[in-house]
Amino acid sequence: MSVQGISPKVVRGGFVLSYPGGPRRVVVFQYNPDTLTRTMKPQVPPDEPGDRLEALRLKGPPQESYRFEAEFDAADQLDRSEVDRHGLHPVLAALEACFSPSYRQLDRENTRAGAGVLEIEPAEGPLTVLVLGRNRVVPVRITEFSVTEEAFDIELNPIRAKVSVGARALTVDDVGFTHPAGLLFMHNLQKRQDLAALHFTGGGTEAAALDQLAKG
């Protein structure tokens, strides 16, 4: 049987938001990012002159950050009633919920403040998970977010937009080992080490030569 003309199904990236004691919300990227910039900063002990024992030590997992752009176009989603009526406002509002307290949380804080109750802890936002394929499912905190709206309908609803996102991966240093984000981090760390093992076991003449050079 010929398979010519059959396109493989593309896995879409996006965010999954889990609210404390509440529902989950999924925000799917309409188009996957063309580029993704990852930055990793190793956690090392502070430099102490003469302390050679610290040269190879690691204080904890590296600090990892992501930057990418997601594009949205209402023209390709007019079969969805909310897009037909409101343009891209719904998806942009869903993305902004990643880092904004909810109306209910702020209203509750205001009511308690009016009753003389002092809030010690700030409102807790949703656990935000960046999903970019099965090998990259990362709990993150949004650190930067900007939207460029490029076209509008007759009611000034945005119908084409680019969203620039900066995010920092959460680790057990941030949330501990028992928090869902910590558990997800540990799962990803194990998966990353499994992927690294696939490469290291590849061997080959070039790898053998490098190993020999390292041995002196």
TrEMBL record:
Instruction: Classify the source by domain of life.
Output: Bacteria
User: What name does the UniProt record give this protein?
Assistant: Uncharacterized protein
Q: Which species is this UniProt entry from?
A: Allokutzneria albata
